[in-house]
Amino acid sequence: MSGPGGDLTYAELADRAGRAARALADEDIGRGALVAVAQADPVALLVAVLAADLVGATPLLCDHAWSEERRAQVMAAVPVAARFDDPLPEADGPAVEHRPAPDDLTWACFSSGSTGRPRAVVRGRASWTASFAHLDALTGIGADDVVLIPGPLVSSLYGFAAVHALAAGATAVVPGRWSPGGLAEPLRRATAVHVVPHRLPAVLDALGTAGGPLRTAVVGGAALDVAARTRAAAAGVRVVSYYGATELSFVAVDADGAGLRPFPGVEIDVRVPPGQVLGEVWVRSPWLCDGYLAGATGPLRQDDGGWMTVGDLAEPHRRGEVLRLRGRGDGAIQTGGATVVPEDVEEVLRKVPGVDDVVVVGTPHPYLGAVVTAVVEGAVEGAAAGDGVSRAALEAAARAELDPAQRPRRWYAAESLPRTPAGKPARGLLATRLAAGDDPGLRRLT
């Protein structure tokens, strides 16, 4: 393993985790206990996770960047046996004996998706570990690989990537945060990388500059642009993209660019209400979570048949077909009697030259209910050629490819979009800021 403080062999990692587990056991922290861990160093965080697992406790991963006020607010809603912000203490003594079981609750992390308050999702051991072999087969990741995981491990996407790399016997490179300027060095030896879609171009930029043996990019968290996959292929990098959620884990995977199909072991049922063209994606699989801690509410729903949904929308789906996602149901915009799926609009606007990324939300309107509003990263009002993108160019693209109801009526520019810890645009936060009308980081395009 390689982190900000240097390299660590598997033997050294096991020794540190074992000694930390001994210290936890000495404090009577054991099976069933919930242990909050928020170490800034990703290696120290993984040691804490492994130590908690060794004593049968459940590690609850918290964001070390939270303010003390925010942390206290979150912790008040989730009872924990202990909280560790610094590296776990280590102790000598006999090895901790805990016989792991598939249904042990071995991972909990916070998820807010793009909207709402963070809530803690908890899952059993097998809901992750039993899927490792399937990901091995899809990606080819094995003991000879060096896997770059350039994001915070408190995100389930990156956390899963780290523990999967360790289970595969690979070298996990965990810088702990996203740093485009810091990609060149690890890419000189990385053979695989886990990223969210909007960060794949930066990886390819760094690869083109520094070179390296990168052969596989595992991309999850949002829809992947076709152009990004094509560019990766030209660089000799195979892309394996997937759709899932913190609550659902893997749902569908696209390993060859032909479209999303169910991940091994997953059943998909798109339930379309009468008279509607889109339906909710319901999933039944061994990879589902156990729910939210402390009775928290959220988008996760479950029926009596063991099916779960987080409200994502898709076109009607039949077995053997490609799954065509259309966004999150709670993000749909109701405007003047029409329903607009933000992802449909974003897909069009991202193709406009000069647009780095874009988020579409609904903002209140006294007569229409809401109007479609676009916040564009990289836009420059009245930009000259080569200096960015103008509102006129954005509107021209909207007129050419979108129905009238889908076209944004309000346009904003942002130097940098706010994002979740996983790197996805924070749609709900943007909507809140727009409603407040006092965010200096958003500039109205007129």
From TrEMBL:
AMP-binding enzyme C-terminal domain ranges (all copies): 345-424
Pfam families tied to this protein: AMP-binding, AMP-binding_C
One GO BP annotation of this record: fatty acid metabolic process
Protein name per UniProt: Long-chain acyl-CoA synthetase
Species annotation: Microbispora rosea
Matches recorded under SUPFAM superfamilies: Acetyl-CoA synthetase-like
One Gene Ontology MF term: medium-chain fatty acid-CoA ligase activity
Keyword field contains Hydrolase: no
Keywords associated with the record: Ligase
Residues of the AMP-dependent synthetase/ligase domain: 5-82, 93-293
Family: Belongs to the ATP-dependent AMP-binding enzyme family.
Keyword Ligase attributed: yes
